[in-house]
Design brief:
Helix content: 10-25%
Radius of gyration: 16 Å
Shape: globular
CATH superfamily: Dihydrofolate Reductase, subunit A
Number of domains: 1
Strand order of the largest sheet: 5-4-3-6-1-7-10-9
Order of helices and strands: EEHHEHEEHEHEEEE
Largest sheet: 8 strands, mixed
CATH topology: Dihydrofolate Reductase, subunit A
Distance between the termini: 17 Å
Strand content: 25-35%
Length: 204
Amino acid sequence: MGKLVADITMSLDGFITGPDDAPGRGLGERGEALHNWVMGGPWRYDQPRRFAPADVDRGVLQEAMGSTGAGIIGRTMFDVTGGWGGSPPGGPDARYFVLTHSVPTEWAGRRSPFTFVTDGIDSALAQARAVAGDKDVGIGGGANVIQQYLAARLIDELRLHLAPVLLGAGKRLFDHLGDQAIELEPTRVIESPHATHLVYTVRR
């Protein structure tokens, strides 16, 4: 069985989106800078998008994709990305489990890479692990989903891509964790011009 890995980009002041994230603006206002490392440099929502990460960043992406057998995301991420048009990150064999209170009717019964889970984080994890086999299960967001799994002490590894930007507002990654202390063991640091990639083991 692989690890449960939370993998997400965060600003220096702790936000994973700017304010007002919405379909077509999934990273919120001024949030494009969070994914400069994925795009290979500055980009904007209203311009043609390119996925051309530099060598270091490309290696980080390829490693994550290669080690992940299934993903868990929240309903908000699903909605703001439009379900990636039915072709989410990870290629044609990618499988995602979407935590939600209701199944969107337009996706119900469709042959798609998405399974909608209405009975909680444990159920989503069990289903994802059954699909992932020996590979990792990745949690890509949003913040609330990662917070739930962190609070439940289920995450094995935390991968943060720290973008050199201060957003000032938006959705914070580490809110709503209560007063418990969660200890992390740093295991790797990789630097690029657009992000510092940090890997931590979550101590039990």
